[in-house]
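#onboarding

Welcome to the new folks! Below is a worked example of what a typical request in this channel looks like: someone posts a single protein sequence, and someone else replies with the predicted structure as tokens. Don't worry about understanding the tokens yet, we'll cover that in week two.

Example request:
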Amino acid sequence: MKFIHDLIEKQKPMFEKGGKLEKLYYVFEAGETFMFTPPDVTKAKGVQVRDAVDLKRVMMTVVIALIPAIIFGLWNVGYQHHIATGEAASLGEQFLIGLQLSLPIIIVSYAAGGTVEAAFAVFRNHPITEGFLVTGILIPLVLPATIPLWQVALASAFAVLVAKEVFGGVGMNILNVALTARAFLYFAYPAAISGDKVWTYLGDAAPVDGFTGATFLGLAVEAQNQGVAVADFVGKTAHWASDPLSLFIGTIPGSIGETSALMCLIGALVLIWTKVADYRIIVSGVLGALAMGALLNVFAGDAEAVKNGVEGAKYYAYLDMPSYYHLIIGGFAFGIVFMATDPVSASQTNNGKWIYGALIGVMTVIIRVLNPAYPEGIMLAILLMNVLAPLIDHYVVNANKKRRLKRATV
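Example response:
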């Protein structure tokens, strides 16, 4: 490693002020600091605060927390393929299928988004930070493995440009960048990221009889339309196990990295233990979803009365689904752990984080259940609350000021 570092250092004068490649200095610096500890030290006299935490370490911690979801997601892509086609395969073969499909998506995400970020760094003459280290992997994890690569490139570039750079770059963005990429694809190319045909890779193989490529959320909407209990309908329709344990583990169709609530829970523990993510957002998000789900259960109606032909009786299957199901289906767990806790786009005050997280949980369930056109509510809920987060903090700060002024005048 010392040989590589020395070789890089020899090239450094060309990128420093007065060198032939002076305009590309920050691109060079980004590559050097990514691989090695920067040689710069503080030279000013006076008191200095030493802290082992910097942006690079924070970003690497998030990537480490994502590793369980990444590994499980790669395996699940291959697992769903072989289950759908009825082919026998080993654990390694299933993982290899997922790797072959997902690795190009990850590479394209980093290449497209990283290029836009580097271009803006050169144009603005400011350092390239490690912010896209996390965003570049989050974007693929919230997409299906069958997504066309050109759409991944377009969405990554769009998200970095519109959701990040126009606001000033790292630390200035209002919206979560990865979710902006997903939202862009959802509205611009809905056929590639919604419906029944995009979540399971079939390749050239024919699916088994009775195969459905719908996710649990899509089947829940269909159960609602037919007035049948969601769990019963999914159990009879899906080729994958639909019991709560299977949903929690994540052996279901969905985006590459968001199906396993178990892997997200492991990631949450890492982020909370390292204090990279705030537990208030995660806990309040879970409580908000549970509370809203339980409230909607009250308005589900009576299935038996409908079955018996009681006049005026109604039954809404999706409303009747146990509230804890909302925590283990779709991308709720992944979103509330890795997206909602984004320290830039989330609320900054402690009380604001409780409100912010709770409203994300509430809005997710409302969008899912009451608007079947958007079965995955966590994406829109987080983006909406990203916009409202500064307003929440504003009122929390004002409330704190009034309370302290009142104490001061007593």
